[in-house]
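Note to self: keep these together.
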Amino acid sequence: MKKSGIKLIALDLDDTTLTSAGTLAAETRAAIERAIKEGIEIVVASGRAFKALPEEVINIPGINYAVTSNGAAVNRLPSGERIKSYALPEKAVEEIMSIVEPYYEYVAVEAFIDGVPYSGRIHVEYPERFGCSKAYIGYIQSTRKPVEDIRGFIRENKGNIDSLDVACPDEEIRKKIRQNIISSVEGIHITSSVKHLTEIINSSAGKDSGLKYICEIKGISRDNTAAAGNADNDIAMIKFAGIGAAVSNSSPACLEAADMVIGCSNDHSVAGFINDICDGKIK
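Structure:
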């Protein structure tokens, strides 16, 4: 019998539930399975597009929902059916592309459309040129659908874009792009999961919005939820949850927002967090 008042746990994936190598530790899987068995709803909450979610996570029996593309979509599992979405405004897409245009020599732009991540062929072949760490080169190359003319592709599909990512290794250029977007584009929200990415979603989207929607479906109060994350794109979700945890390898802003700090993602700290909830040590 479940000893905790927590009825739902939302889990970020990369560098939180997954190790820095992008894998799910056996200890973490066992903790997730235990929570599900004890009646706790486990929700995947990721910046990844749906088609880029790891099968070793979403195929765990009993995981019924995934918040994807930083909350631009909510999917039902295992079918993948999209039950909620927030597309970027078409005007915003046009304006963002115009802002980024002068910097195309230095940046890569990705578009998430209907759960599929699209990117320029050069970025897919050489993601390290645009700031991707060695640990995630394989992830980019195995999940992105390459497009020869990504700029034209985005403009052609501007009415169906869940989110845009701008990858750039140069801090000064990133700052200029972000400042220009913030000051001149309406209807959007900017966040980031890793330093080199500027991630742009509808202003109504966010992992917190996805979590709130699932809580409404399940009739669960936010006071009876918990969440764990590591980056700026997890902050709103962590603040929304009744108990918000940040792994110790989190961004400074994420650490500040959390109710509690747990161990590093490589130390199976999410497994401990889940087991503590099941044991009633966290209520």
